[in-house]
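Lab notebook, bench 4. Still working through the backlog of constructs that have no structural model yet. Next entry is a single chain of 437 residues. Request: give me the structure tokens for it.
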Amino acid sequence: MREDILEIFTLALTAVQPGNLVGRWIKREGDRIMLGDRIFLRSELRHLYVIAMGKAAAAMGDMLEQVLGDAISEGIVITKEGYGLPMEYMTVLETGHPVPDERGIKAGEMVMQILHHTNEQDLVLVLLSGGSSALVADVVPGVSLEELQKLSSLMLKSGADIREINTVRKHISRLKGGQLARLAYPATVVCLALSDVIGDPQEVIASGPTVPDSTTFEDAWQILEKYRLTQLISQGILEWIALGRRGDVPETPKPGDIIFERNQFNIIGNNKMALLAAAEAAKGKGYTVFIEDVSMHGEARERAVQLAIQLEQYRGPKPACILLGGETTVTVKGNGRGGRNQEFALAVLAYWKATGKEPLNVPVILSAATDGTDGPVDAAGALVDGRLLHWVYEQHEEPQKYLDNNDSYGFFSKTNAQLFTGPTYTNVMDMVIVLIH
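Model written out:
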């Protein structure tokens, strides 16, 4: 069953490979460029600019170059370190994630330089995927990179969800929250996006650089207060948000703004697409399949225990495959290493140990990030099963001790249960796959 679960996960990743998805949306026939249901004549465009951002940016950009080739006037591909691919017509930059760095600041400046030259005869094609908010960094007046880095680290450990984190990010940025579209105006902006957010909200994916933003400086302030961060972040950030709350600096552009009149946003891949592919793969192996949740969220360890209890009550047909997708959060209180998927898997294992489960009676559970990196570490996730539970009993290991220290990576590095995929070149949140025998 371990082999089955790994193959099901691999086939799910294949279904959301961005190169294939981009190839379905973009075609070129001579002078005609087709983007979904829109047709542009290259001869009528002054420039075709490409801005690709995120963990899937290189794979998206690679396919775009294959389709459009020399129709591209200028382009930039900004992705995570180790996720780059060689390009012929576009510049590739690898930058810091999940905490922004100097390379991300340079990337943000290069994006703004491209947009500085646009007019109404230009087309700006934006290829968007998760991770962009950190990978493409920029700072507002009075705020330094170091201050932005501290804020990012604090928010990532606070337990805030991606909507809340991105609301704050949008209000200390010149590109996020529709501001890329503001800079590009009056050019036409077409965005193709891989969603890494539950429900696929346009304004949350990669902090919504090309779409209207409904959040405000006041919202950003309330989030900082909610997680008790106002006493921990810099005076520069606090002063900038205060200026925004008073109306002394412009808000992010809102619905109805003229800058969005000619723009288009298309979601070309998401978590549900990966789950459906996993379901087909599991059915092909003889499993009865249930897609239990496509919007999994909340604290990773709490959601894991909920799942473990639900599985104890399962009385359906066997063998069965249960699928969940979404993105949990982790409130970091310890000083260990790990990510939400390994924390999820470790919480299941700790629950099994605490309740004295028999190794032969537990399912196989894989929790993994589709982008190949579980938070700040190199593992995509982890797999727990009866074999691992037997090892825990035999070695007198205490999973709860590692969980209390948020050290899921430290625990799983002692086992063969970690999942290492390397760069997957895609990003559609996380998947939990359960096989019941």
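Notes after review: The two ends are 8 Å apart (CA to CA). Residues 102-116 form the longest helix (15 residues). Flag for follow-up if needed.
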